[in-house]
């Protein structure tokens, strides 16, 4: 079974972008760690990043037919995008929202998430480890759904 991992705007710059907040790991490092873990869990993995809201929405639509669950770091679209929320509301499987930084410790505009209205779980402030934890949770929820 397949899990789709989606990353929003500016996350292509991870490792070089505000490393004091987001750390030194790159998105390629995160993808490699997710692929290793997905293998271990017996899951297929799709891993995408886009700076464009519509492209993320198209991937969520594709996930309706292809994926059992979604892990998403919507980045700044977290705080702005009703359209991403609507797309996720049209997806039936588990959705876990991930933020590398602890958004609640930062500016107040980062405290509200549209995506959290849909997410089954939210991970924030655990660094890039959050992606692996989110994948494990999706694996659990897929298993629970089948039980
Ligand atoms: C982020 C937090 C967002 O507020 C920010 O816009 C990002 C990254 C995180 O992973 O901590 O781009 O989603």
Give your account of this protein's structure.
- By secondary structure, this protein is of the alpha/beta class.
- It has one domain: Rossmann fold (3-Layer(aba) Sandwich).
- The protein contains five helices and five strands, in the order βααβαβαββα.
- A five-stranded parallel sheet has the order 2-1-3-4-5, sandwiched between helices.
- The longest helix is centred in the last third of the chain and has 18 residues, at 129-146.
- The model has no long low-confidence stretch (mean pLDDT 96).
- The structure holds 1,3,4-trihydroxy-5-OXO-cyclohexanecarboxylic acid (DQA).
- 1,3,4-trihydroxy-5-OXO-cyclohexanecarboxylic acid (DQA) binds at residues 10, 73, 75-76, 78, 99-101, 103, 110.
- Keywords: Amino-acid biosynthesis, Aromatic amino acid biosynthesis, Lyase.
- This is 3-dehydroquinate dehydratase.
- The record marks 17 as: Transition state stabilizer.
- Pathway: Metabolic intermediate biosynthesis; chorismate biosynthesis; chorismate from D-erythrose 4-phosphate and phosphoenolpyruvate: step 3/7.
